[in-house]
Protein backbone atom coordinates (compact mmCIF):
# COMPACT_ATOMS: atom_id res chain seq x y z
CA UNK A 1 0.00 0.00 0.00
CA UNK A 2 1.10 3.54 -0.56
CA UNK A 3 0.50 6.66 1.51
CA UNK A 4 -0.20 9.84 -0.44
CA UNK A 5 -0.20 13.32 1.11
CA UNK A 6 -1.38 16.61 -0.39
CA UNK A 7 -0.35 19.66 1.66
CA UNK A 8 -2.75 22.50 0.79
CA UNK A 9 -2.98 25.97 2.33
CA UNK A 10 -6.03 24.97 4.43
CA UNK A 11 -5.83 21.21 4.82
CA UNK A 12 -3.39 18.35 4.59
CA UNK A 13 -5.22 15.45 2.93
CA UNK A 14 -3.99 11.87 3.33
CA UNK A 15 -4.85 8.78 1.34
CA UNK A 16 -3.87 5.16 1.81
CA UNK A 17 -4.45 2.42 -0.75
CA UNK A 18 -3.06 -0.07 -3.25
CA UNK A 19 -3.22 2.49 -6.07
CA UNK A 20 -4.95 5.69 -7.27
CA UNK A 21 -8.29 3.86 -7.67
CA UNK A 22 -8.85 2.74 -4.10
CA UNK A 23 -7.92 5.25 -1.43
CA UNK A 24 -9.05 5.63 2.17
CA UNK A 25 -8.72 9.33 2.95
CA UNK A 26 -8.76 11.82 5.85
CA UNK A 27 -7.65 15.41 6.47
CA UNK A 28 -6.09 17.58 9.16
CA UNK A 29 -5.88 21.38 9.23
CA UNK A 30 -2.69 22.94 7.85
CA UNK A 31 -2.91 25.82 10.35
CA UNK A 32 -1.73 26.45 12.95
CA UNK A 33 1.72 25.33 11.90
CA UNK A 34 2.64 21.95 13.40
CA UNK A 35 6.00 20.58 14.43
CA UNK A 36 7.27 17.15 13.36
CA UNK A 37 6.59 15.86 16.90
CA UNK A 38 2.97 17.04 16.84
CA UNK A 39 2.46 15.52 13.39
CA UNK A 40 4.03 12.24 14.52
CA UNK A 41 1.39 11.88 17.25
CA UNK A 42 -1.47 12.97 14.99
CA UNK A 43 -0.48 10.50 12.26
CA UNK A 44 -0.32 7.62 14.72
CA UNK A 45 -3.83 8.44 16.02
CA UNK A 46 -5.21 8.66 12.48
CA UNK A 47 -3.87 5.22 11.58
CA UNK A 48 -5.51 3.74 14.65
CA UNK A 49 -8.81 5.45 13.84
CA UNK A 50 -8.78 4.18 10.24
CA UNK A 51 -7.54 0.69 11.10
CA UNK A 52 -4.34 1.10 9.12
CA UNK A 53 -1.32 -1.03 9.95
CA UNK A 54 1.74 1.19 9.42
CA UNK A 55 3.82 -1.80 8.32
CA UNK A 56 1.64 -2.27 5.22
CA UNK A 57 2.82 1.05 3.78
CA UNK A 58 5.63 0.46 1.29
CA UNK A 59 5.88 3.89 -0.29
CA UNK A 60 5.08 7.53 0.51
CA UNK A 61 4.44 10.39 -1.91
CA UNK A 62 4.03 14.03 -0.89
CA UNK A 63 2.81 16.98 -2.95
CA UNK A 64 2.78 20.43 -1.37
CA UNK A 65 1.98 24.07 -2.05
CA UNK A 66 3.19 25.04 1.45
CA UNK A 67 7.00 24.76 1.19
CA UNK A 68 7.77 25.32 4.89
CA UNK A 69 5.55 22.38 5.89
CA UNK A 70 6.82 19.84 3.34
CA UNK A 71 10.05 18.71 5.01
CA UNK A 72 8.40 18.57 8.43
CA UNK A 73 5.64 16.25 7.21
CA UNK A 74 8.25 14.09 5.46
CA UNK A 75 10.33 13.89 8.63
CA UNK A 76 7.37 12.90 10.84
CA UNK A 77 6.37 10.16 8.34
CA UNK A 78 9.95 8.96 8.10
CA UNK A 79 10.02 8.60 11.88
CA UNK A 80 6.91 6.38 11.79
CA UNK A 81 7.63 4.31 8.68
CA UNK A 82 11.38 4.51 8.17
CA UNK A 83 10.60 5.43 4.55
CA UNK A 84 12.00 8.37 2.59
CA UNK A 85 9.02 10.05 0.91
CA UNK A 86 9.03 10.83 -2.81
CA UNK A 87 8.34 14.59 -2.99
CA UNK A 88 6.77 15.43 -6.35
CA UNK A 89 6.24 18.76 -8.08
CA UNK A 90 5.64 20.26 -11.54
CA UNK A 91 9.04 18.95 -12.72
CA UNK A 92 8.27 15.31 -11.89
CA UNK A 93 8.03 13.25 -15.09
CA UNK A 94 4.55 12.40 -16.39
CA UNK A 95 2.60 12.17 -19.63
CA UNK A 96 1.40 15.76 -19.12
CA UNK A 97 3.12 18.63 -20.92
CA UNK A 98 3.07 21.96 -19.10
CA UNK A 99 5.15 25.08 -19.67
CA UNK A 100 4.89 27.03 -16.38
CA UNK A 101 7.90 27.22 -14.06
CA UNK A 102 5.56 28.39 -11.26
CA UNK A 103 2.67 25.92 -11.31
CA UNK A 104 1.65 24.64 -7.85
CA UNK A 105 1.98 20.89 -7.27
CA UNK A 106 -1.77 20.51 -6.69
CA UNK A 107 -2.51 22.01 -10.11
CA UNK A 108 0.03 19.70 -11.74
CA UNK A 109 -1.41 16.66 -9.93
CA UNK A 110 -4.91 17.73 -11.04
CA UNK A 111 -3.65 17.80 -14.64
CA UNK A 112 -2.00 14.37 -14.35
CA UNK A 113 -5.10 12.72 -12.86
CA UNK A 114 -7.37 14.29 -15.48
CA UNK A 115 -5.11 13.18 -18.33
CA UNK A 116 -4.80 9.60 -17.11
CA UNK A 117 -8.39 9.08 -15.97
CA UNK A 118 -10.58 10.90 -18.53
CA UNK A 119 -10.51 11.15 -22.34
CA UNK A 120 -11.05 14.38 -24.34
CA UNK A 121 -10.35 17.94 -23.17
CA UNK A 122 -10.81 18.60 -19.47
CA UNK A 123 -11.28 21.49 -17.06
CA UNK A 124 -10.46 20.76 -13.41
CA UNK A 125 -12.00 23.16 -10.91
CA UNK A 126 -10.35 23.07 -7.46
CA UNK A 127 -12.50 24.63 -4.72
CA UNK A 128 -9.62 25.11 -2.25
CA UNK A 129 -8.14 28.11 -0.43
CA UNK A 130 -7.80 29.45 -3.94
CA UNK A 131 -10.33 28.59 -6.62
CA UNK A 132 -8.39 27.26 -9.59
CA UNK A 133 -9.44 26.03 -13.02
CA UNK A 134 -6.92 24.17 -15.14
CA UNK A 135 -7.50 23.38 -18.79
CA UNK A 136 -5.82 20.40 -20.41
CA UNK A 137 -6.37 19.15 -23.96
CA UNK A 138 -6.87 15.55 -25.09
CA UNK A 139 -3.16 15.16 -25.94
CA UNK A 140 -2.14 16.00 -22.35
CA UNK A 141 -0.93 19.56 -22.91
CA UNK A 142 -1.90 22.08 -20.23
CA UNK A 143 -3.69 24.99 -21.94
CA UNK A 144 -3.58 27.35 -18.94
CA UNK A 145 -4.98 28.09 -15.50
CA UNK A 146 -7.39 30.46 -13.71
CA UNK A 147 -6.56 31.49 -10.10
CA UNK A 148 -9.21 33.33 -8.05
CA UNK A 149 -9.85 33.74 -4.30
CA UNK A 150 -11.43 30.60 -2.87
CA UNK A 151 -14.96 30.79 -1.50
CA UNK A 152 -13.98 30.68 2.20
CA UNK A 153 -11.02 32.99 1.61
CA UNK A 154 -13.34 35.55 0.08
CA UNK A 155 -15.98 35.08 2.78
CA UNK A 156 -13.35 35.58 5.50
CA UNK A 157 -12.23 38.84 3.88
CA UNK A 158 -15.85 40.05 3.69
CA UNK A 159 -16.64 39.18 7.32
CA UNK A 160 -13.28 40.49 8.55
CA UNK A 161 -13.54 43.84 6.81
CA UNK A 162 -17.12 44.68 7.84
CA UNK A 163 -18.66 45.50 11.22
CA UNK A 164 -22.09 43.96 10.76
CA UNK A 165 -21.64 40.88 8.59
CA UNK A 166 -21.57 37.51 10.39
CA UNK A 167 -19.93 34.23 9.41
CA UNK A 168 -22.46 32.09 7.54
CA UNK A 169 -23.01 28.49 6.58
CA UNK A 170 -22.35 27.89 2.87
CA UNK A 171 -25.76 26.61 1.80
CA UNK A 172 -27.89 27.82 -1.11
CA UNK A 173 -30.61 30.24 0.12
CA UNK A 174 -34.25 29.97 -1.01
CA UNK A 175 -34.04 33.06 -3.21
CA UNK A 176 -31.25 34.84 -5.06
CA UNK A 177 -32.59 38.03 -3.41
CA UNK A 178 -32.27 37.53 0.35
CA UNK A 179 -34.61 38.99 2.99
CA UNK A 180 -32.11 38.85 5.88
CA UNK A 181 -28.33 39.34 6.16
CA UNK A 182 -27.54 35.63 6.25
CA UNK A 183 -29.62 34.82 3.15
CA UNK A 184 -28.20 37.86 1.30
CA UNK A 185 -24.65 36.68 1.97
CA UNK A 186 -25.47 33.07 1.09
CA UNK A 187 -26.73 34.27 -2.27
CA UNK A 188 -23.55 36.25 -2.88
CA UNK A 189 -21.23 33.44 -1.84
CA UNK A 190 -23.05 30.41 -3.26
CA UNK A 191 -24.88 31.76 -6.33
CA UNK A 192 -22.16 34.36 -6.92
CA UNK A 193 -19.43 31.73 -7.07
CA UNK A 194 -21.55 29.40 -9.22
CA UNK A 195 -22.04 32.34 -11.57
CA UNK A 196 -18.30 32.97 -11.70
CA UNK A 197 -17.54 29.32 -12.36
CA UNK A 198 -20.23 28.94 -15.05
CA UNK A 199 -19.11 32.22 -16.64
CA UNK A 200 -15.48 31.11 -16.76
CA UNK A 201 -16.38 27.69 -18.18
CA UNK A 202 -18.47 29.34 -20.92
CA UNK A 203 -15.72 31.88 -21.67
CA UNK A 204 -13.05 29.18 -21.94
CA UNK A 205 -15.25 26.99 -24.19
CA UNK A 206 -15.92 29.97 -26.45
CA UNK A 207 -12.35 31.28 -26.58
CA UNK A 208 -10.83 27.88 -27.42
CA UNK A 209 -13.83 26.69 -29.45
CA UNK A 210 -13.64 23.32 -27.68
CA UNK A 211 -15.89 21.24 -25.48
CA UNK A 212 -14.55 20.10 -22.10
CA UNK A 213 -15.34 17.41 -19.55
CA UNK A 214 -15.50 19.32 -16.25
CA UNK A 215 -14.30 17.80 -12.97
CA UNK A 216 -14.49 19.54 -9.60
CA UNK A 217 -12.41 18.77 -6.53
CA UNK A 218 -11.26 20.44 -3.28
CA UNK A 219 -12.98 20.76 0.08
CA UNK A 220 -16.02 22.64 -1.27
CA UNK A 221 -16.59 20.87 -4.60
CA UNK A 222 -19.44 18.82 -3.16
CA UNK A 223 -21.35 22.00 -2.28
CA UNK A 224 -21.13 23.52 -5.76
CA UNK A 225 -21.37 20.45 -7.99
CA UNK A 226 -25.10 19.82 -7.32
CA UNK A 227 -25.96 23.45 -8.15
CA UNK A 228 -24.85 23.43 -11.78
CA UNK A 229 -25.09 21.16 -14.81
CA UNK A 230 -21.79 22.60 -16.10
CA UNK A 231 -19.71 20.39 -13.77
CA UNK A 232 -19.79 16.74 -14.90
CA UNK A 233 -18.25 15.12 -11.86
CA UNK A 234 -17.00 15.91 -8.33
CA UNK A 235 -14.10 13.86 -6.96
CA UNK A 236 -12.67 14.95 -3.61
CA UNK A 237 -9.71 12.62 -4.15
CA UNK A 238 -8.81 13.87 -7.64
CA UNK A 239 -5.58 15.64 -6.53
CA UNK A 240 -4.51 12.65 -4.41
CA UNK A 241 -5.08 10.37 -7.41
CA UNK A 242 -2.77 12.60 -9.46
CA UNK A 243 -0.05 12.42 -6.79
CA UNK A 244 -0.49 8.61 -6.67
CA UNK A 245 -0.13 8.41 -10.46
CA UNK A 246 3.05 10.52 -10.31
CA UNK A 247 4.42 8.07 -7.76
CA UNK A 248 3.42 5.04 -9.85
CA UNK A 249 5.05 6.57 -12.94
CA UNK A 250 8.32 7.46 -11.19
CA UNK A 251 8.96 4.83 -8.54
N1 LIG B 1 -16.09 18.97 3.94
C1 LIG B 1 -15.99 20.31 4.01
N2 LIG B 1 -17.10 21.08 4.23
C2 LIG B 1 -17.00 22.41 4.30
N3 LIG B 1 -15.86 23.09 4.16
C3 LIG B 1 -14.75 22.39 3.93
C4 LIG B 1 -14.74 20.97 3.83
N4 LIG B 1 -13.46 20.56 3.59
C5 LIG B 1 -12.72 21.69 3.53
N5 LIG B 1 -13.47 22.78 3.75
C6 LIG B 1 -13.03 24.18 3.72
O1 LIG B 1 -12.92 24.50 2.35
C7 LIG B 1 -11.79 25.33 2.10
C8 LIG B 1 -10.91 24.68 1.07
O2 LIG B 1 -10.45 23.45 1.57
P1 LIG B 1 -9.35 22.57 0.84
O3 LIG B 1 -9.84 22.18 -0.52
O4 LIG B 1 -8.95 21.50 1.75
O5 LIG B 1 -8.19 23.66 0.67
P2 LIG B 1 -6.65 23.51 0.32
O6 LIG B 1 -6.51 22.45 -0.74
O7 LIG B 1 -6.32 24.87 -0.18
O8 LIG B 1 -5.94 23.16 1.58
C9 LIG B 1 -11.11 25.51 3.43
O9 LIG B 1 -11.49 26.79 3.91
C10 LIG B 1 -11.65 24.40 4.30
O10 LIG B 1 -11.72 24.80 5.65
C1 LIG C 1 -2.92 28.39 -6.63
C2 LIG C 1 -2.58 27.76 -5.28
C3 LIG C 1 -2.45 28.84 -4.23
C4 LIG C 1 -3.72 26.81 -4.89
O1 LIG C 1 -3.47 26.30 -3.58
P1 LIG C 1 -4.64 25.67 -2.65
O2 LIG C 1 -5.86 26.51 -2.79
O3 LIG C 1 -4.92 24.28 -3.18
O4 LIG C 1 -4.09 25.61 -1.27
C5 LIG C 1 -1.28 26.88 -5.38
O5 LIG C 1 -1.39 25.97 -6.42
C6 LIG C 1 -0.04 27.73 -5.58
O6 LIG C 1 0.48 28.30 -4.66
N1 LIG C 1 0.43 27.83 -6.86
C7 LIG C 1 1.61 28.56 -7.24
C8 LIG C 1 1.33 29.53 -8.36
C9 LIG C 1 0.89 28.88 -9.66
O7 LIG C 1 0.34 27.77 -9.65
O8 LIG C 1 1.10 29.47 -10.73
K1 LIG D 1 -6.87 21.96 -3.36
From TrEMBL:
GO terms for cellular component: cytoplasm. It holds the Pfam family Pan_kinase. Substrate binds at residues 104-107, 181. ATP binds at residues 6-13, 129. InterPro entries: ATPase_NBD, Type_III_PanK. K(+) binds at residue 126. The keyword Cell membrane does not apply. One of its GO terms (biological process) is coenzyme A biosynthetic process. Its cofactor is K(+); NH4(+). GO terms for molecular function: ATP binding; metal ion binding; pantothenate kinase activity. Keywords: ATP-binding, Coenzyme A biosynthesis, Cytoplasm, Kinase, Metal-binding, Nucleotide-binding, Potassium, Transferase. Pathway: Cofactor biosynthesis; coenzyme A biosynthesis; CoA from (R)-pantothenate: step 1/5. CDD domains: ASKHA_NBD_PanK-III (cd24015). Belongs to the type III pantothenate kinase family. Homodimer. HAMAP family: Pantothen_kinase_3. This is Type III pantothenate kinase. The gene is coaX.
Amino acid sequence: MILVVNIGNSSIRFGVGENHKNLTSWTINTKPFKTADELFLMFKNMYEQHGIDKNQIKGIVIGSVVPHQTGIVARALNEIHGIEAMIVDRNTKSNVVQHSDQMGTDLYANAVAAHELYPENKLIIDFGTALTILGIDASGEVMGVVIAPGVITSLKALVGDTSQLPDIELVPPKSSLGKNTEACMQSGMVYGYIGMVEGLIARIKKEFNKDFYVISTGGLGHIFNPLTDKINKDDKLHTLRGLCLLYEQNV
